[in-house]
Amino acid sequence: MSRRWSLAVAGVAATYLLLVGLVVVVLLDLLLCEAAAEIESTNSTVRDSEIYVVVIEGDPVVNYNGSLPGLVATAEFYSHAWRAHHHSSNVKDAIQKYKNYLSEKQDQLLKAFFKSQEYTKLYSYHHLLNGFAVKLTAKQAELLEKTTGVIAIQKSYKVKKTTVHTPEYLGLVQGIWEEEGGPEKAGEDMIIGIVDTGIDPTHPSFAASGGHGGQQHMLYTPLPNFRGICEVAEEFPRGSCNGKIIGARHFAAAAIEGGAFNASLQFASPLDGDGHGSHTASTAAGNHGVPVIVDGVFYGNASGVAPRARIAVYKALYRMIGGFIPDVVAACDQAVADGVDILSLSLGPNSPPGASSSTFLNILDLALLNAVKANVLVVQAAGNGGPYEKSMTSFSPWVVSVAAGVDDRSYPNTITLSDQTVLPGIALAPPTRGDRLYGMVLANDAVMGETNALYTPSDCQEPSLFDPALVHNRLLVCTYSFNFIFGGSTMQQVVNTVRALGGAGFIMVVESDIAGSKFDPIPLPIPAIVLTVTSDSQVLLGFYDKYTEKDAHGKPILFGAEVKIGDGQIARCSGQAQQVALFSSRGPDVADFQFDNADVLKPNIMAPGYLIWAAWSPLAIDNLNYMGQRWAMISGTSMATPHVAGLAALLKAKNPLWSPAALASAMMTTADILDRNGKPLLAQQLSGGTTPLLEPATPFDMGSGALNINAALNPGIVFDAEHGDYIGFLCASEGVRAWQVNAFTGGVCPRVAQRAADLNMPSITLANLTGIRVIPRTVTNVANHPENYTISWTDPADVVVAINPTTFSIGIGSQKTQVITFTLRATRISSFVSFGNIMFKGSLGHTVHIPISVINKQL
Ligand SMILES: *[C@@H]1O[C@H](CO)[C@@H](O)[C@H](O)[C@H]1NC(C)=O
Ligand SMILES: *[C@@H]1O[C@H](CO)[C@@H](O)[C@H](O)[C@H]1NC(C)=O
Ligand SMILES: *[C@@H]1O[C@H](CO)[C@@H](O)[C@H](O)[C@H]1NC(C)=O
Ligand SMILES: *[C@@H]1O[C@H](CO)[C@@H](O)[C@H](O)[C@H]1NC(C)=O
Ligand SMILES: *[C@@H]1O[C@H](CO)[C@@H](O)[C@H](O)[C@H]1NC(C)=O
Ligand SMILES: *[C@@H]1O[C@H](CO)[C@@H](O)[C@H](O)[C@H]1NC(C)=O
Q: Where is the Peptidase S8/S53 domain positioned along the sequence (predicted)?
């Protein structure tokens, strides 16, 4: 299997040169695996076994329809109508009985397979999948796959946090809560399940009082419908679940079996030792109005998007090691069993998981399909593989895949030279004291005695290299070299050096713009600035040379170059519209492991994901810039995802009966595609230089557009879909067989095949338009009054679109839906991607839009 994979990937490498960066990584991974597998296959000991997720016949809990004697149907308990009864003892009893039945069947199958041999079963999955995680040798896996009753088997693969190491700020959303009764109510009683690195229960964002200084009326009351539990451990004591945090568990069996887990490093409890889980949880549902303070500096108040929603924590990612898919699936299985409303996944596979012919049939996506069936909206990070095309690590139409946007906030600063030259730079650092100038001393000029080969003096990492008398009360000039990016040099150590020598602060210059572009504006407790542009650095160094007198041996004797540094801790908002972040993964979506294009739009929506301030764990050790801090400003599609999860909670609190597809549609169709001046939003692309190129953003960059919170709360019409529609989609997907769909989902393929593109998504995506295609969509009125709509549109290049009808009246009750057909005709053969847009304008002010994407056109 892995061999086929690497061939497929190599084929792609030839075709998609742009993907080179991504493919090389994938290939390296694969070659290592393959080499290891070959060596091991000659010696079959238990040591060779690996973890597999195995799916077997029999409906999981969310699908079970009551066809077995003595076992009550459980599927309906997850429908809207039943959710309120979820906590009743009859329901619990029925679920437990069916779970026990499934466990028994699983064990029977395993016992029969292993005969008298021992085996290690790591997890039993019941809710989303009927299956288990078990250790198998490659040979055993091959045999088990052919065993009667086994539907699918997939080797464990790793997933990672989708953060990038560039800091970011929180796009604090203003005025979004009015409709929900203010921040005291927004998202009330919704439960957001966070599958991540755990949580810091002592963080003020998660305080039981709900912010606002702990007023009594803000206390969180118990939610009887939630069935989750809270693990207790020494480092996660009783009381950690406080009403805001209502459930907390950890899933580490696969990490432990993988030999990567060390309880004193990763914590065998829901405690967040990484920071990432606290960050994402607080972005989605952190309390309102919690001051962000780092090193005594106030950076503003933080709030989750749904400040009154509750948080259920499912820890399945671990600091330093990331996560393993059997743990992640177990976490999702439990979250749905517990009754979360929304599942937020700021994680993705390291590369597309290669176990099946279709991306949509990978184990995680199948589990998530059933989560959606159980009325849980699933939001997942798009991935950080951008700006290369086809770099998505979130694939399926039942999942909302979130791209990361760069918002308009920045922390600009300047340094003023005594000759009045002003140079730009950054660093979240205080200004030099008083309204006076300070002398500069170059690190290399302040070196005392012999230099130690271990350290480059210009990195300013080692105080003992320098003469304190020369640095005292001056600004030390250091170089932001690649040692700060790939080596062990840190800004914190520069601070320590300057403090040890009694310096007034420091200035970082760069030797290359590339190094400068990798600098994140991180909080520093002493006056400092980083000149991120080489030419500015040269101006500063020229100024230093001009005013520094040296003796005959080149030793400086008079430091006449004087400067002052401004305040770098003040955020400026340019008013500029959100841009798609360079690192944000791009479409088109891939249908299979030949990297064929899918008839599905990915990503789906963009939310702020660059320099986002949110909660951090003081125990975190992976990010040197925020060691010991309670707040961090970081970037990634990981950070964008919980914004969407939070908004979904607001929407669902307002519209408890909306399906996951309706919630997703409301967010997508109301997303912004234009800036305030009516110009298209822009996407960062590679430029060859350090400042990214900006090009009009396409649906393959940002999906439907930038999340517009206010508009999403009132869409007027939605594109709804239910489980059966996803089954129809799977049946129609290339490389997916009807028996697979039936085996995996229990669903039966319709006699008259639909086409994948016919799935009622709020987008139209065709990977290969041959001649004419007619694509239906159904809109559902979710406003409580009739409305007249008019459709207008723009054709993609080389395609003519006809729409019927172009105006319609939509009612309420039995009249609340309208079918519309879109006829797309290729007018010219072409293989470049082209995009169009369809607008629905209602007579009562509602406006929604859906993007069209067409890749190949044949006549
Ligand atoms: C298999 O590996 C074990 C442990 O590494 C070693 O002791 C044994 O000799 C090997 N057997 C064969 C057939 O290579
Ligand atoms: C219930 O599910 C079983 C197995 O998936 C199927 O054979 C049966 O037809 C279903 N019955 C109903 C009433 O849907
Ligand atoms: C686990 O980590 C601790 C702390 O770093 C270390 O002392 C210990 O040796 C580690 N244990 C194992 C089994 O690696
Ligand atoms: C931050 O929140 C506090 C209450 O927690 C409030 O008093 C203060 O005015 C807020 N500051 C800003 C800048 O919004
Ligand atoms: C598109 O479809 C046509 C007709 O089915 C086929 O000949 C062609 O190879 C397809 N192109 C791609 C790129 O899949
Ligand atoms: C819709 O159009 C009809 C016919 O023109 C008109 O009578 C009706 O008032 C309109 N309804 C709304 C809600 O605009």
A: 187-676
CATH number of 412-569: 3.50.30.30
- 276 part of the active site: yes
Q: Give the pLDDT confidence of 653-673 residue by residue, as tens digits.
A: 999 999 999 999 999 999 999
Please tell me which residue in 48, 59, 189, 196 is annotated as part of the active site: 196
Q: Which ligand is nearest to the CA of 259?
A: 3
Our answer on whether the CB atom of 172 is closer than 6 Å to any ligand 4 atom is no
Ligand nearest to the CA of 734: 5
Q: Could you state, in order of their start, the residue ranges of all structural domains in the chain?
A: 33-155, 159-408+574-654+672-705, 412-569
Categorize the per-residue pLDDT at 25 as very low, low, confident or very high, splitting at 50, 70 and 90.
very low
Name 191's bridge partners: 310
Q: Is the CB of 45 under 6 A from ligand 1?
A: yes
pLDDT of amino acid 285: 94
| Ligand 6 geometric centre to CA of 815 (Å) | 14
Nearest to 231 by CA among 128, 173, 174, 313: 313
Q: Looking at ligand 4, which residue's alpha carbon is closest to its atom 10? A: 301
Q: Which residues contact 522 (CB under 8 A, 6 or more apart)?
A: 167, 427, 428, 491, 625, 626, 633
Q: 63: closest CA among 379, 369, 397, 400?
A: 369
The span from the CA of 125 to the CA of 772, in Å, is 44
Give CA–CA dist 237/260, Å, rounded: 25
Confirm if 307 and 286 have CB atoms less than 8 A apart. Answer: yes
Q: Does domain 159-408+574-654+672-705 have CATH number 3.40.50.720?
A: no
What atom in ligand 1 is closest to the CA of residue 42?
Answer: 14
End-to-end CA distance of the chain: 37
Eight-class DSSP state of 238: T
Does any ligand 4 atom lie closer than 6 A to the CB of residue 214?
no
Whether the Cβ atoms of residue 576 and residue 694 lie closer than 8 Å to each other? no
Contact between 289 and 183 under an 8 Å Cβ cutoff? The reply is: yes
638 carries an active-site annotation: yes
Distances (CA, A) of 699 to 779, 833, 837: 21, 11, 10
- Tell whether ligand 6 has an atom less than 6 A from the beta carbon of residue 843: yes
Helix, coil or strand: residue 96: helix
Backbone angles phi, psi at 801, to 5 degrees: -105, 135
What are residue 505's DSSP bridge partners?
A: 475
Rounded to an integer, what distance in angstroms lies between the CA atom of residue 406 and that of residue 610? 5
Strands 717-718 and 772-781: antiparallel
Please provide residue 109's backbone torsions phi and psi, each rounded to the nearest 5 degrees: -60, -45
Would you say residue 231 has pLDDT above 50? yes
State the pLDDT confidence band at 514, using cuts at 50, 70 and 90.
confident
Ligand with the closest atom to the CA of 48: 1
Strands 475-479 and 505-509: parallel
Task: Please report where in the chains the tokens 């950054």 appear, as a residue.
Answer: 426
What is the spatial distance between Cα 762 and Cα 518, in angstroms, rounded to a whole number?
37
Residue 43 CA to ligand 1 center (angstroms) comes to 6
Q: Which residues of 124-137 are buried (b: 16+ CB within 10 A; e: fewer)?
A: bbbbbbbbbbbbbb
Which residue's CA is minimally distant from atom 12 of ligand 6?
A: 787
For residue 842, the CA-to-ligand 6 centroid distance in Å is: 11
Catalytic residue among 276, 288, 643, 723: 276
Considering only 298-302, 588-592, 673-677, which range has the smallest mean pLDDT? 298-302
Closest CA to 99 of 340, 341, 336, 376: 336
Question: Pocket residues for ligand 5 (CB within 6 Å)?
Answer: 768, 770, 856, 858
d(CA 420, CA 413): 15
Output DSSP code: residue 515.
H
Catalytic residue chosen out of the listed positions 481, 638, 665, 704: 638
Tokens of 342: 């929304």
